Amino acid sequence: MDVPGLDRAHVWHPYAPVPPPVPVHQVVRADGVRLTLADGRELVDGMSSWWAAIHGYNHPRLNAALTAQLSDMAHVMFGGLTHEPAVRLAHRLAGLTGLPKVFLADSGSVAVEVAVKMALQFTGRHRLLTVRGGYHGDTFGAMAVCDPVNGMHHLFSGALARHVFAPRPPARHDAGYLDELAETVARHARELAAIIVEPVVQGAGGMHFYPPSCLRRLRELADEHGLLLIADEIATGFGRTGELFGCDHAGVRPDIMCLGKALTGGYLSMAATLCTERVAAGVGTLMHGPTFMGNPLAAAVANASLDLLAERPWRAEVARIEAGLAAGLAPAAHAPGVADVRVLGAIGVVETREPVDVARVQDTAMRHGVWLRPFGRLIYTMPPYATGDDDLARITTAMTAAAREAAPAA
Q1: Which residue among the candidates 45, 57, 101, 135 is catalytic per the annotation?
Q2: In this chain, where does the modification N6-(pyridoxal phosphate)lysine occur (predicted)?
């Protein structure tokens, strides 16, 4: 089969026109932390397949969980029926988060849609407050709480619900910002149902890190004004930032939490929206039901992924990766055209002053044996926790080289 030719003729890739202007590369195998291309090249995966494959690829325990579940059933509707893998997963997620009611969805964007519907139905109000620089997904309810100016969804602004946007949180504690935040919440409190944010790390909106004090203040303001706090932990959940959840940095519990991405270890699409007993009781019947809600295969592999996470020293692994990224990316800070270098947990970011040439950055990284997928002004990595020191050094070398080559010509 002519995969490249047929891909170019028929496949519409994400965030791209058809055919895509940037080359796409055929993967024939993924194992451990490596991707093997059709031409035989091996690349260290610096992206965890968009932050999901925290254990790496082709893991025998995850493979076994899928195989065992497949022999019983691949899927059954969740309306009026239930099954052990989904029940066990919900029980475990409730224990990990302290949020006892679990709605299983089929993608991160849908989890956010469900969270928004919960908040609106619970309060009877129809506006949310969030901060600029955020990203919560590509469906309509989620797009409405993404950054309306600098985000990727401005084309749809006229069709989206109008919510309240506070300024982007600063990178460091700022008492003045917290005061401004309090004023904004107070000014709109009577029309707000909830506050929704990505805890500590804003992901696809710019890979921006902000202090836990901001999250703590948002929790206080939600309580003060009778609002719900929604934590979008789809990118930050399951250890990526150095804590199990981003909220743990601030020691707060949200009223509603969204999980996804790493939930299944990158094997299958699955997400969850969790909430308190109070919210569930106030919502009552939630009119939402994805066809593949609670899919047994996804639930089985999610349980196996949580088993692995509980068994492996993920805190030490993430701390080791954080130290390696900080040391390895330090030289990039001196490259012409680089605005900032920042690291938190297993997240490393090189921010350039001008938008990068995606194809050029990818070519540079691939020459160094690494797969990266930059966007905007960001060359970043979120490697699997299983990434060894040598491979981590290869990733940071590739990122530094790409940053230097991304500098505008003199």
Answers
A1: 135
A2: 261
From 261, 267, 380, 385, the catalytic residue: 261
Active site residue 57: no
Prior bond of 19 cis (ω within 30°): yes
Amino acid at 127: R
> What is the predicted pLDDT for the residue at 410?
42
Q: What is the SS3 assignment for 371?
A: strand
> Both tokens of residue 22?
């940037």
One-letter amino acid identity for 74?
A
Beta carbons of 244 and 260 less than 8 angstroms apart: no
Does 101 show up as a binding residue in the annotation?
no
Residue 291 marked ligand-binding = yes
Give me the residues paired with residue 333 across strands: none
d(CA 318, CA 325): 10
Among this protein's residues, is 15 annotated catalytic?
A: yes
| Cα within 13 Å of Cα(386), Cβ side | 19
At 313-347, the pLDDT tens digits run 999 999 999 999 999 999 999 999 999 999 999 99
Cβ–Cβ under 8 Å, residues 292 and 310: no
Strand partners, 202: 208
Question: Which tokens in the block code for residue 111?
Answer: 């989890």
Omega within 30 of 0 (cis) for the link into 85? no
Q: Is 373 annotated as a binding residue?
A: yes
> Given CA atoms 161, 164, 170, 172 in this order, what sign does their dihedral have?
negative
Question: Is 261 one of the annotated active-site residues of the chain?
Answer: yes
Known catalytic residue at 232: yes
Q: What is the pLDDT of residues 211-256, one digit of tens each?
A: 999 999 999 999 999 999 999 999 999 999 999 999 999 999 999 9
Is 117 labelled as part of a ligand binding site? no
* pTM, two decimal places: 0.97
Which residues make beta-bridge pairs with 166? 131
Active-site choice (15, 31, 72, 179): 15
290 belongs to an annotated ligand binding site: yes
Question: What gap in Å lies between CA 293 and CA 296, rounded to an integer?
Answer: 9
| Reduced 3-state DSSP string for 273-340 | EEECHHHHHHHCCCCCCCCCCCCHHHHHHHHHHHHHHHHCCHHHHHHHHHHHHHHHHHHHHHCCCEEE
Token digits of residue 381: 């990595």
